[in-house]
Amino acid sequence: MIASLFLAALVGLTPPGAVTARDNPNDQGGAVVVTWTAPPQTQADSTRPDSSVVPLAGFRVFRSLHADTGFIQVTEQPATSTEYIDSDSLLRDGVPYYYRVEAFSATDSARSAVVGPVVSSAQWFNTTLINILVATIVICALFLIYLELARKGAKMYIRKIAGLDAIDDALGRATEMGKPILFSFGLGYITDLVVIAALPLLRKIAKKSAEYSTRLLVPNSDPIVMTAAQETVKEAYTEMGRPDFYNADNVNFLTSDQFGYAAGVDGIILREKPGAIFWLGYFYAESLIMAETGHSVGAIQLAGTTETTQLPFFVAACDYTMIGEEILAASCYLRPEPIMLGTLKGEDFIRFWLIVLVTATVLLGTTGAILSKQVPILNNIFETVVRWATPAY
Amino acid sequence: MKRSVPLTIVFVTAVLLIVAFFIPHKPFGDLQSRFLNWYTIVSGFTFLLGLDSLTRHHLVRVFRRVEGWGYSLVLVLALFATMALGFYSWFKFQSPFALRAPFMWLYTYMIIPLQSTMFASLAFFVFSAAYRAFRIRNFAATLLLVAACLVMIGNVPLGSAFWHDIGSLVHAIIPGVSVDKLTALEGFASIKDWLMSIPTAAAGRGIGIGLALGGIAMSLRIILGIERTYMS
Fold first, then answer.
1. Can you tell me the ipTM of this complex?
2. For A123, which residue in chain B has the nearest alpha carbon?
């Protein structure tokens, strides 16, 4: 033991090399990046069988307002690390700081030279997001061009969406059978686009239910969505001249617990035996539990969600399923005004060019891999394209 | 006024948040988290609306002796008992989720088992849905059935054992074929990996890109005030 300590003292630790301290880029200030290179760890001398290993334990980073005094330890990092972002709440923008890094082992330590001064500051633009900014500008510009074309009266076409066409049939069937209609937003919040997209569908269904005098049940898992649903149904009934038909008990809150909600909705389905069920919103694992219960009572079911993992369950259990962005286009389908359709046309245009771009990149990557020796530039172009297209956040 | 004020708020908020995404400097840098905090505070209060809806709905059923009113009574009693235990645990143990708190007992021994029971029922529903989906009616359904069987076999150890048996069989028929080489291919697992990472992922990404574009289009319609259906 004494011999190993003596040996360690003899060999000593090398201080960390190439220590740098700079302002952390692309942030809101209050952070400094300290980097260093790891020194060779104190190794046993293989030619001396009595020597012992004194491995490097890690690094300590120190900060001070002065170059020669007042250093306080800000962190202790493992031996594998070579960088530390100092975002201590005490760090102030515009104040010069000095840093030093200390390598330490169980028995020894070695300090680097002091680096600095370094001043942290906030940036006005995150340069790592420049690709996203360019893509956003291009996409928005294309949408706006198509909106302008639509305003000028260009002819727009929207294809048939079977799920949306089936709404009337489902409502008619429920009315003929004298059964109620059930509508669920799932576990969606009002901040989910799919819930906002489902509101005009609820409005259409509520209008029809008022026209046919068929009870509409809307159990909710979120109180804000419940309030929006109550207002939508109430207004639809009023528009149809049937404000008396509205009953707040039919558009109620169940629970925000996932399986509690599934149990509650299953209970309603088994008690009320609805003739038509609409699953339009955000769903997780409870989707199949509810949709299969709906199937067991013989209801005609229509589903639409943006949660792609649940789509196969709905496809298996429901009569109609709106896949992907079909539900987001529902409001345009229900109100096919040129200005609404313009955004869909813009969407299709961008989709077409994305397909072209993806195909071209795949071909470039494949050709580059095959001809990597003969034409190395292809691989370089491919890597640049992939790097540029990959978000940095 | 009734429409223009909300539309202006939506437009200004959306533009601010888009700009804030690219600007880390204060006050933009933490704008999104600040807005989310506001939403959390508002949504916390809206749970009172949910409580009001739930209790009123079930108390009316109890007082009017509607069929099944007993269940509503159990629900209301359970609701208030849970609340009471939560407050008691808060005062007595500083947190309802303290290990020795009665609320935690209720959570561990009643709520979690009930949730697990509902989740477990999913297995039976998957079975019945799969039976209907995999019934051979046309070419697409047959393809689905074959793909599903291959994925299922590739996911279980039995698949590996089957593949080993197939290797032995092939070796018996064609002695030149090495059993070890065939076994090393791990056929069913490889087929499963290919199905999941190539056709399934491709379809998923296609839907994902469509959803992203649909989301952008809808967001633009909302920001520009073209889509107003959320303001009923």
1. 0.85
2. B25
